[in-house]
Structures are given as structure tokens and as C-alpha cells.
Amino acid sequence: MPAGPGPAGGGAPKIEPMAIVSLVCGILSFVCCLCCNILGAPVPLAALVTGFLSMQKINKDPQTWTGKGFAIAGMATGGLALLLMIGYLIYALVTGTFSATPRGLGNYNF
After folding, report:
1. Residue-level pLDDT at 72
2. Is the dihedral of CA 52, 19, 72, 44 positive or negative?
């Protein structure tokens, strides 16, 4: 006996790709926060932007797209990493220890 008609669009909702990108960028932003200091700022910004855009797309068409949790997690981790970077920048500027590159880079005594 054939099953009844399924949901419009040919199946279950798919995970929105930008939500996954947001999550990956959010996780990578912690690595950039620790390794690259303020030079890694584009990664958490990408997590925030792609998370926001994917949430808009998911909310606009929930029958087609899913992945709200991925987008929220990406925005949360990206936002937290961005706050850590800003905090480090303020601390470094106040204490006078700001360096955009790792210490010792270029100080070679041959």
C-alpha cells in the first residue's frame, strides 16, 4: 500500500549550509583568538554574519530548512571569541603589551 503524500518540497527539511559554516567559524574563532590575537577577528565576524543570515533563511522557510541550533551555537561561540579578542585588545592597550605578532618573531640573532 503506497504511503500518503509527503511534505511539499520532496522530503524532510535540510540543514541550511550557512548554519554549519557559522558553527565551524565559531569553533575556529577560539583557535584564532588564542593564536592570532586581533588579526583573527574576521573569523568570529564571519560566524556572526553567517549565523544571522542562516537564521533569517530558516525562519523564512522552516519547511525547507533546519539547523537553527547550529546557527545559534555558531553565533554564540563567535560572539564570545570576539568579546575575548576585544577584552585582550583593551587589556593590551592599557598595559602597553599589545603585539599583533607573536613575541620574538623577527628577533633572530645569527
Report:
1. 97
2. negative
Q: What's the CA gap between 25 and 60, in Å, rounded?
A: 23
Query: Letter for the amino acid at 22?
Result: S
pTM: 0.76
Torsion of CA 73, 78, 81, 86, to 10 degrees: -140
Between 79 and 5, the higher pLDDT residue: 79
Give 49's Cβ-side CA count (13 Å radius): 6
| Number of neighbouring beta carbons within 10 Å of residue 72 | 17
Show the cell assigned to 68. Answer: 537553527
- The radius of gyration of the chain's CA atoms, rounded to the nearest angstrom, is 20
In Å, how far are 16, 64, 100 from 60, measured between CA atoms? 12, 9, 41
Cell matching residue 22:
557559522
Q: Where are the domains of the chain?
A: 14-95
For 13, phi and psi rounded to 5 degrees?
-60, 150
Instruction: Decide: 48 and 77 in contact? Cβ < 8 Å.
Output: no
